[in-house]
Amino acid sequence: MLSNAQIKHINALKIKKYRDEYKEFIAEGSTLVTDMITSPYDIAGVYALSPWITAHLELIRRKQIQVFEADPKDMERITTLANPGPVLAIVKIPPGDDEAFSAADGRSVEQKLPGFFQELSLMLEGISDPGNFGTLLRIADWFGIRYVVCSESCVELYNPKVVQSSMGSVARVKVFYTDLASLLEKIKGRIQVFGTFLGGESLFTRELDKNGIIIIGSEAHGISDQLSAFVTRRLFIPSYGSSEYGKAESLNAAVAAAVVIAEFRRRIV
Amino acid sequence: MLSNAQIKHINALKIKKYRDEYKEFIAEGSTLVTDMITSPYDIAGVYALSPWITAHLELIRRKQIQVFEADPKDMERITTLANPGPVLAIVKIPPGDDEAFSAADGRSVEQKLPGFFQELSLMLEGISDPGNFGTLLRIADWFGIRYVVCSESCVELYNPKVVQSSMGSVARVKVFYTDLASLLEKIKGRIQVFGTFLGGESLFTRELDKNGIIIIGSEAHGISDQLSAFVTRRLFIPSYGSSEYGKAESLNAAVAAAVVIAEFRRRIV
């Protein structure tokens, strides 16, 4: 059984203010927690039902994880899900990468992010829905994208719904928050910048590069004018057919990202 | 101001039992309601703030819509959203298409669904998340897929979250619920059946057809063994790269559907 202090601490981590203060976040469910334990993240503690602990003793010992046995009532009191799973972990937020794209420490972007200009990266502007954001990280992970650069207006990486919907990808993709316009200004001319718009040349016929940055705009507003100015190649996902009653006006941001990234990857098969 | 009876009726429609009983469902937000008004659906009533009514007088008159002026407090009491929009519509559920794939009335599938064997359709098995289901309808709509055939285990089409996340596509795509195995048995040999699996030949190199049925399985279990037996072409969305900490195990069902459908459409460009 967990103590009231433990339950209070875990529940505090559902709120951003306390995640920032304690530098910890929540991950739930067996697959996700196992992913986190085997990831580079440090685990502050695992709260689990007895059968889960028994089934994972080897992993717990090998990784020297601190485990607290919880009963089903405890899990109901700490869960962020509609149906609590058998395990919840408190994961430590690693020291920030806020300086990755600034010259504050005198090191260049290349030194800090090896390969950044020789690979495909994702840039997210104003993605505020945690489910969409997590899904975007999962897409990046699946298609081998290592770096995701986000505007400050994007939802926080350690929001429980982001962690949950990323299905563990939060631990495998490097996510940065920075002022996107300043970054794009700084690296202008060194890398192609792709953006998806409702119109323009078809993604399927447009010349693509193996490297570049793909900007995905917010669901409600698309890519802002400020960032559009940096786009060197505009892309359009063609739509097909239409009923007499009109047709879909747009695709969900994560869906659009997946179609675009898949096409980049298809071409280098 | 709305009456208590009106507010009670609208709130009842948030529950499936009452949607079934009253044959009505809810649509919210200006874009969605406007889509519904211009769709083949009949509108039972529109509940809106005064500025919305003023801005849409022409549409309301032309379509002879019954409108009730609501104040912001009313909207808060009837909304299904975290932040209520300026308008909510009650839409009539049209008479069912339950018999589309049965021979109960002696007419064939071709007679009931012209073109079914000459086009690309989507089949959904066990999609229980309303957001995913709505996103799948939006994808079908964008890519010109007219028919979506669902297992009885899929979420209900008129669930408010489905309607909302479909962004109006619920009104433009024909959705059927039926026993998928019986249907596939009946049409076996007449159309290619594609299924996405975690492994197999790459989607990007596999031979595809202009016509066919694409089966999307549930997020948790994929395509069932029972339906897999009907798949004539297995597809695999290749994943790329992998960190030392593993990689994403799968893609979200809607994301996978979008990548597969986009590839079909790309080939016939």
Could you describe the 3D structure shown?
2 copies of one chain form a homodimer. The first copy, chain A, is an alpha/beta fold and 269 residues long. The first copy, chain A, has 2 domains: 4-92, 60s Ribosomal Protein L30, Chain: A (2-Layer Sandwich); 109-267, Alpha/beta knot, CATH 3.40.1280.10. Chain A has 12 helices and 10 strands. The first copy, chain A, has helices spanning 4-12, 16-22, 30-37, 50-55, 57-62, 72-78, 109-112, 130-142, 160-165, 180-187, 225-228, 253-267; strands spanning 24-28, 43-48, 67-69, 87-92, 120-124, 147-150, 174-177, 193-196, 212-216, 233-235. The first copy, chain A, has a 6-stranded parallel sheet, with helices on one face. A 4-stranded mixed sheet of chain A has the order 1-4-2-3. The termini of chain A are far apart. The interface between A and B is large, with 47 and 47 residues.
The multimeric state of the shown protein is: homodimer
Going by CATH, the homologous superfamily of the largest domain in chain A would be SPOUT methyltransferase, trefoil knot domain
Which spans of chain A have pLDDT < 50 for at least 5 consecutive residues?
A: none
Q: How far apart lie the N and C ends of chain A?
A: 53 Å
Shape, per Cα inertia axes of chain A: globular
Question: Any guess at the CATH architecture of the largest domain in chain A?
Answer: 3-Layer(aba) Sandwich
What percent of residues of chain A are in strands? 15-25%
Strand order in space, largest sheet of chain A: 7-6-5-9-8-10
Radius of gyration of chain A: 21 Å
Task: Return the domain count of chain A.
Answer: 2
Mean pLDDT of chain A: 92
